[in-house]
Amino acid sequence: MASTLSGLPQAAAQDLYTSSSTQQHPLGAYMETKDGRGFRYCKVGATSTVVGKVYQGTALDATNLQPSGGLAVAAAAIGATEVTLTGTLTLAANLVAGGYLSVVVTPGIGHTYKIKGNTVVAAAANCVVTLEDPIRVALTTDSKVIMARNTYDSVVIEPGTPTAAIAGVAVNIITNGEFGWLQTRGPVGALFTGTGVAGKAVGSLSGGTSGSLAPAIAATNIAGYHMATGITGEYSLIDLVIG
């Protein structure tokens, strides 16, 4: 489906506190409760979620998706919906479906495209990436791109130091491999490491207890703000602002 603008959906096909083996919404779809708490739709990775713990996307792949300097491509004209990656890569079929491709070396620099799917390659060249929207600025063999999987595709518990973008906090058990909602905005009980002060910012860890938040420090994102005093090893009440 091509990218189009629309308002927030008015009704959810899947209830908040459920786990579904069938995908009911696009990954990353956002909905709110009447009191303004926000939730995003996700697929869970190999381990079922634990209520109150923090989750992230799959670890960044600096070899096959985001190497320094970008991935080499074949030329692609304006209006094309396929990009051929000419370097030697290993990617499962449709691994990056629902994710994003960004041009990092001109021509076409700065443009971002949602990915519809990709062909399989095993230590081989010429992976074909199909885009949801057509190319807006023609690519040449001088262009370079990087890719990222959808943050909400196969989420995993945040390790002691995050290896991908923070996705949200689990509010119910979503069975491994199934679909459900993570909370990203508003009050939630979340595992906490460190000493927290009401009103102060909290962020992702930089070394610590897996699946927890911590006092915000330099080089970590702000995930929310304390609504109460945070005590290490306990579940603090946090006003999330993840997204």
Question: Brief overview, please?
Answer:
This protein has 243 residues and is mainly β.
Notes on the structure:
The structure is a single chain. With 243 residues, this protein is mainly β. The protein folds into two domains: 30-58 and 153-241; 71-148. Helices cover 0% and strands 37% of the residues. The protein is built from no helices and 20 strands. The chain has strands at residues 30-32, 38-43, 54-56, 71-72, 82-85, 89-91, 100-105, 112-118, 121-124, 127-131, 144-148, 156-157, 166-170, 179-191, 195-196, 201-204, 213-215, 222-226, 230-231, 235-241. Strand 13 (166-170) and strand 14 form a beta hairpin.
